[in-house]
C-alpha cells in the first residue's frame, strides 16, 4: 500500500474521474493531495465528504508523496515526472510524453500486467484509442497470433477536452439556427461532419494519433511484427470512442470462437445480435469501465481475418480507469513481495 498518494491535474476532466474512481473503488491510502497548475491552486475539492485545498504543482510537494497519478498535458508531464521520481515517488502518467521511452512500461492491466514489475518510477498509460483496441486484440492474439490490424476510429469530441465537447453542442445549435460558430478545438466544423485528422502530420501521410496506435500496440505486446494500419477520425459524438477493427491471425479463428474468447475476457462485454439490432453504441457505453464488442464476423476478403466493432468510454477505460487499475495492480504486486 502507498501511504501518501496524489492526483496531478486533479481539477481537469480526467482528474475529476480519477477522484471519482478512487472513491468508488475504495483505493487504499492514508493521505491524499490534489495537485494542479498555479491557476487552479487554492481552489477546493470535496472528496469523500471532506474539503481539500488544491496545491500548486512544485518539486517539493513530492517530498512526502509515494504514488502520483498524473493527467496533464505532455509538457507538464515532461517537467513534473522527474521531480517526483527523484523523490522516490512512483508516477502513473496519462500523458503521451513518457509512453515510448524504453525504460517506461506502457501498461493495460488486462493485457500486459507483468510489465509493471520492471518500472523505474514511471509507468505510462496508453492513448485512449490504443487501450480499447489492445484489450480487444489480447484474446485473439493469444489464440491465433495477430499478424496485421486494420483499424478505423470514430473518436468522440471529449478526446479533445471540454472545449471539444462544447464545440459539438454549440456548433450544432448554431448550425441548426443558421448562425456562424467559431470552433475552438477543431480546425473544421464537427457538427454534422466527420474530420479525418486527429493530431499532427507525422510520417508517410499518417497523423500523430494514428502512429500512437501503431507504436503503442507493438510496445504493449512486445512484438514489432504486428502490423497496424490506422485511420483516426473525429466524429460528432460527445463521449466514447468507437473502432472498426479487422485483425488477421496466423491461425484461423472463427467468428463463434472469437465471440467466446471476447466473452471470457475480463473487461470486455459482448453485445452482438444483428437480428435484434443489438451492438455497442457510444450513447450506451458512457460511464462504464468495460470495453464493448459487437458485429463479430469473419472477413470475406482473406482466410484468417476477424472483423468487429469496439466501443469504450475514452475518459474512463481510455484514461482514468486504466490509470487507477495500474495503481491497484501496483498495490497487489507490493502485497505479494
Ligand atoms: C483524442 N486520443 O481523442 C485523443 C485524446 N488523447 O483526441
From TrEMBL:
Binding-site residues, NADP(+): 11-14, 39-40, 158-159, 314
Pathway listed: Amino-acid biosynthesis; L-methionine biosynthesis via de novo pathway; L-homoserine from L-aspartate: step 2/3; Amino-acid biosynthesis; L-threonine biosynthesis; L-threonine from L-aspartate: step 2/5; Amino-acid biosynthesis; L-lysine biosynthesis via DAP pathway; (S)-tetrahydrodipicolinate from L-aspartate: step 2/4
Keyword list, A-Z: Amino-acid biosynthesis, Diaminopimelate biosynthesis, Lysine biosynthesis, Methionine biosynthesis, NADP, Oxidoreductase, Threonine biosynthesis
Record-linked InterPro entries: Asp_semialdehyde_DH (IPR012080), Asp_semialdehyde_DH_beta (IPR005986), NAD(P)-bd_dom_sf (IPR036291), Semialdehyde_DH_NAD-bd (IPR000534), Semialdhyde_DH_dimer_dom (IPR012280)
Binding site for substrate: 155, 234
A molecular-function term among this protein's GO annotations: aspartate-semialdehyde dehydrogenase activity
Pfam families from the UniProt entry: Semialdhyde_dh (PF01118), Semialdhyde_dhC (PF02774)
Catalytic residues as annotated in Swiss-Prot or TrEMBL: 128, 241
Gene Ontology BP annotations: 'de novo' L-methionine biosynthetic process; diaminopimelate biosynthetic process; isoleucine biosynthetic process; lysine biosynthetic process via diaminopimelate; threonine biosynthetic process
Binding site for phosphate: 99
NCBIfam families: asd_B, PRK14874.1
Family, per entry: Belongs to the aspartate-semialdehyde dehydrogenase family.
PANTHER family per record: ASPARTATE-SEMIALDEHYDE DEHYDROGENASE, DEHYDROGENASE, PUTATIVE-RELATED
Protein name: Aspartate-semialdehyde dehydrogenase
